[in-house]
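User: Reviewer 2 asked us to show a designed sequence for the structure in our supplementary figure. I'm pasting the structure tokens here. Could you produce the per-position amino acids so we can include them in the response letter?
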């Protein structure tokens, strides 16, 4: 885990994990106590360490682990410019272009 690295620009011809491109299935697998990811505006964030420091509490943010949190994020953070500076270091990638913006099947699957 190095710091200060630049994220790959969207559209660069790099595929897979190196570019930080993820599917919903992969995001959903990161929803346990010690491994939490969520999606906001198609960007994927690793919130595992941040949950303990989240000013709104660990429970509310943990509720969205493995899911799209865009609506809740915009509803609970009126000063988006301020909170996005905390969000930026947590970003690990984005949803693959072929993935829907929100996972429509999250309540359908019985897994």
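Assistant: Here is a per-position design you can include in the supplement:
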């Amino acid at each position: 885990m190095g710091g200060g690295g630049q994220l790959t620009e969207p559209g660069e011809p790099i595929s897979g994990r190196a570019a930080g491109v993820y599917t919903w299935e992969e995001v959903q697998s990161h929803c346990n106590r010690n491994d939490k990811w969520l999606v906001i505006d198609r960007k994927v964030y690793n919130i595992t360490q941040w949950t303990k420091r989240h000013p709104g509490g660990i429970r509310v943010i943990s509720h969205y682990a493995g899911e799209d949190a865009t609506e809740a994020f915009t509803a609970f953070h009126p000063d988006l410019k301020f909170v996005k500076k905390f969000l930026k270091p947590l970003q690990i990638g984005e949803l693959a272009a072929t993935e829907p913006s929100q996972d429509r099947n999250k309540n359908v699957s019985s897994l």
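For the response letter, you might also mention the following. The two ends are 31 Å apart (CA to CA). The beta strands are 21-22, 31-32, 35-40, 43-46, 91-95.
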